[in-house]
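Go through this fold for my students:
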Amino acid sequence: MDYIKARTYIDESHRFGGEMGLEAITCLLEKLGNPQDDLQFLHIAGTNGKGSVGAYLAAVLQEAGYRIGRFISPTLYEYRERIQINGGYIAEEAFGRLMDPVVKAIGELKAEQKPLPSPFEIETALSFLYYKEKQCDFVLLECGMGGKTDATNVIRNTKLAVITSISMDHMEYLGDTLGAIAGQKAGIIKPGSRVVTCRQEKEAMDVIEQVCKEQGCPLYVGEKTQAELVTADLDHMVFTYREETYMIHLAGSHQLENAVLALAGIRALQDAGYRISFEQIRNGMEKARWNGRFTILRKNPYLVVDGAHNPDAAKKLQESLRMYFPDREFVFLMGVFRDKQYDAIAKRMAPMAKEIVAMETPDNSRALPAEELGEVLKKYQSPEHVHVAGSLEEALQLGEELAKKEDVIVAFGSLSFIGDLTKLSEKMG
C-alpha cells in the first residue's frame, strides 16, 4: 500500500466506531504478533507538559547513545511527525508498507466480528511494528488521553512511568475531580516500573502514591522547589538543581518544572542500571527542542504561539507573558474546541489583552465557532475590544493591524492550528 492510500484508510476508519478501552487494540495487536512485547517503554501521562518532558527525556537518551522511538499526539506540522526515531519522521514508504499487515489484520477482525480499532489505535499499532523493525532501545510513548483506558496502555514493558502536571481536563471521560483524573493517569503504573511525577495537588498526589504502593513501584518526585532559576530570557533558561547547573532552550515559566521532572526521570533510569553520564544529561537538556509551546515565531511585533487549551495551561501562559513581557501590551488570537473549558480560559486571559480576536480552529468538527467564542470573550472584555475573524489568515492579519510594534501578539487555545499559523506567518513575512 502506498502512503496516500494508507492515510486515506486511516481517515476512513472513523466509520468503525471505536470506544474507550483496550479490547480493540488488544485484538489488533494479537493479530500482528504483539510487537509491543519486544519493546521497552517510557510511558507519559498527564494533563500538561507531556510533550516538553518527552522532548527532554528523548534528547538526553539520544545523547547517551540510545535509539529512541517517539510516539506523539497531536502533531503540529506534518502527519508523519507522530512516529519518530531519534527525531526523524517515519518514511512514507515504511508507513505504507507497514499498513499492509494492519489492514489484513483488521479484515480478519471484521470477519470474526470482533471490535475494530479507531484511527489512533491503528496509528499506535503501526508505530509498534515500526519501532520493533528499527530495533529501538526505548519507545517514548505519550498517552492520547487519560491513561488507564488509553490505547497506549496495552503495553507491558514499562521501564519508566511519567506523570506530568494533572489538572481538570477531559472531565466527561476521566472524571470531575482531581482524584478521579489522577486515578486514570496513574493507570499507566505497572509492576516492575519506576514512576516519576512532579509535586501534584494533594488530592492527585495521594492517588499516585497509593497506586505506586499497591504496584510495588518506587516513586521519584521532581521537586521544583529544589531548583533555583539563575537567569531566563526568550532564548534560554539557566537553573541549578541538586547542586548541578543546566541550560535549556524551551521558553515558558512552566519549563523549570518540566525540566526538573525530566531530570528526576533520568535519575530513575540511572538507578535502574542504564548508563547515562552527567555530561550526556547536560548536553541533552540543552539540545532539547519542542515547538508550539511558548514559541516565538517572529519579532517586531512579537508573535508567540502556545497550545494552552485548558485553564491550567492558560494560567501558565499568563505567568510566562508576565515573566518575559512585563511592560508590554497584548493582542490575543484565541481559538478553541467546543469540548474544552473555554469560558474558564477566556475569564483568565481576556482581561489581560488590549485587543482579542476570536477565531475558529480550521478543519475540525470539534471547533467552537468564532462568533460563539466572541460572545464568551465579551463577558470578560469590553465588546469594542473583541473582534471576530472568519479564518486563521484573517485572524493573523487583524492581529497585526491591531498591534503596535512594541506589542505582543499571542495565539493560543489549541495545538491544532499552530502548524498552519506558523506557515501563514512565514508566508506573510
Remarks:
- The domain at 3-287 is CATH 3.40.1190.10 (UDP-N-acetylmuramoyl-L-alanine:D-glutamate ligase).
- Residues 1 and 43 are 30 Å apart (CA to CA).
